[in-house]
Amino acid sequence: MNRKDKTEMTFNERSARDYKIAPFFWLNSYIRTPIISDFPLLREAVNAQNFDLVSKIVVEHDPFEVKRIRISSENSELSPNLIPSQSHRRMVGCICEPEADSINWLELEKGNPVQCYCGHWFQLVNYEDYFNMTNQ
């Protein structure tokens, strides 16, 4: 291949080295965001209450548990915002105000609710408890 100037190269011709990312992102030359219809197995597992399979699917598609969770403004120590996790301890970031410039980090442990500086309450639970409590 004749080496062209980077500005003349097409999207498909650029290598992963030019972007410093892993090459597996370059399959099919684009990154597509998955939608829930791509995971019919997840819907079936939730309906059948097979929580081992649900946690396996969630961990495979979000192994670092970095997805955002919208929190309720009406929460208390008795009804905290539930954070599902496979581990017994986890760091959670709270953006206390929409205009906030920083994130307040909290360390959650399963069982005990923790209050952020802004007043929001969080509790770490396993996936089975999370689906049971949110589907009532």
TrEMBL record:
**Keyword tRNA processing in record:** no
Sorted alphabetically, the Gene Ontology BP terms of this entry are: mitochondrial electron transport, cytochrome c to oxygen
Q: Does the keyword Zinc apply?
A: yes
Q: Which Gene Ontology cellular component terms are annotated?
A: mitochondrial envelope; respiratory chain complex IV
Which Gene3D superfamilies does UniProt cross-reference here?
Cytochrome c oxidase, subunit Vb
Keyword terms, alphabetized: Metal-binding, Zinc
Give binding positions for Zn(2+): 94, 96, 116, 118
**Name of the protein:** Cytochrome c oxidase subunit 5B, mitochondrial
- Taxonomic classification: Eukaryota, Metazoa, Spiralia, Lophotrochozoa, Platyhelminthes
